[in-house]
Amino acid sequence: MSSVPAIILVGGAGTRLPEVSATRPKPMADVRGRPFLEYVLAWLRASGVREVILCAGYKAEVIEAHFRAGAGFGLRIRTVREAEPLGTAGALRLALPFVGERALVLNGDSYVEANLDELARVHEDCHALATLVAVERPDASRFGRLLVDGARLRAFEEKRPSPEPGLINAGVYLLERQVLEDIPAGRACSFEREVLPALLASGASVAVCRHDGYFEDIGVPEGLAAFRAAAERLSIKFQ
Q1: What is the distance between the alpha carbons of residues 99 and 180, in angstroms, rounded to a whole number?
Q2: Residue 145 backbone dihedrals phi, psi, to 5 degrees
Q3: d(Cα 53, Cα 66) in Å, to the nearest integer?
């Protein structure tokens, strides 16, 4: 995966994390004296990624000041900034000039120790335009569930009010360049609610790579607290 850039969506304001959002973007939440985003970057570097594009929006200057072209992080880092909120897909579209044939895409508020070699293998075996990492959760009610047939994604099931186990989207994707090219430029668009369902509806191959390892979403206080508690136990090596 060293030749594939990683695009990280870091523009979220974190409205459900008021302790964070008052002064910084959600991915910059403090975890044991480091921004959460440093943990994601350290995992990417250990997984062989060499180039990162940060799609920033809310308080982008905080991210730009901290990471400054990757100095000290062992990565080539650039930032693209929204002039206005463009949603997850609209933000991705801004990174298109820096993408070759494929891109690895991550949500900046999730930590997923996915096997990127396995992700690439599933993507190629399924001749997929998009492949997403999925994890099994004992309670999928906050996320919505994925309906799959083997390694193929068949449908998205809406969130349910009652807690039920299920397979969920972990927010890590391997995408062919065409997927980014087809996102409308200059307008707000959701990758999860518009682009992925449209791919399925068109008959395109969308694959699923199951992940059995660690996963946490810090978008809510209990998720951030859980990651803070787990951070010391994770095998993360910083520069």
Answers
A1: 9
A2: -110, 155
A3: 14
- Alpha-carbon torsion angle 107, 163, 137, 123, nearest 10: -60
Over the range 82-115, which residues count as b (16 or more CB within 10 Å of their CB) and which as e?
beeebbbbbbbbbbbeebeebbbbbbbbbbbbbe
Is the whole-model pTM more than 0.90?
yes
Q: Which residues contact 47 (CB under 8 A, 6 or more apart)?
A: 1, 116
Q: Which residues pair with 149 in a beta bridge?
A: 152
pLDDT tens string 17-46: 888 888 899 999 999 999 999 999 999 999
SS3 state at 56: strand
Let me know how many helices (H) and strands (E) the chain has, helices first. Answer: 8, 13
Would you call 217 exposed, middle or buried from its count of C-beta atoms within 10 A (0-12, 13-18, 19+)?
buried
pLDDT, tens digit, for every residue of 125-158?
999 999 999 999 888 788 888 999 999 999 988 7
For residues 123 and 174, the answer to whether their CB atoms sit within 8 Å is yes
7 touches 99 (CB < 8 A): yes
Nearest CA among 91, 57, 77 for reference residue 5:
77
